[in-house]
Amino acid sequence: MLSQERYKLILDIINDRNTVTVAELSSELDTSESTIRRDLTALDRLGKIRKFFGGAASIRQNEGFFEDKVSVRETQMHEEKTKIAKYAATLINDSDFVYIDAGTTTSRLIDFITNDKATYVTNGITHGRKLIHRGFKVYIIGGRIKETTEAIIGTEGVASLRSFNFSKAFIGTNGMDLQAGFSTPDIEEALIKQTAIEKSYTAFVLADNSKFGRVFPVTFSELNKCCVITDSLPDDRFSKETIVKEVSI
Question: 113: domain range?
Fold first, then answer.
């Protein structure tokens, strides 16, 4: 097989799956791993892919710093987010001290919470309002308000979270990747998520199937630090890295 033919096949595979290992390409293309590594190096230099140790990723994965406003994201993956939210709400027990991260899927979670004995903490402006209207006991952290996500962020927010010890945390994410972990566009928002996870006994990331294989500029957690609740798992390799619950309700 000519080099150009292999390049095209490799690009097709990577763009289809987002990430792929050298071993997988070697097996599928019936080509030595050393040849595959050279091909990946050449494609990386051409700016066609992003090479990493042991494999490569589609350059379409790096989504940059742009983030849609809440009003836009609320209309996306509506049915999938509802499935995830319904299941996540059943995990809250009477004695729980719960952190709910800002985000559209976590906002949907509040719609299905029935436990009025647990205590809730959030960095979401709209989340706090929804929790109060549901009659729940709720605290909101201090800090700067980010316009696009309506989240409270900044050093004050991080300091607020460090005084808490949560039994459960429900976290939103923009992307999750086998190598990059959970990621988001904003550094300050990533620090809030990271701190909440560190201060929680169990952290659940609520992620619809569109979040898999996507990488944003800032990683806030490794995959094995959180359990994942999703509507559909597009790549079984994620279940080897952490606990993944697929819901069908």
Answer: 70-246
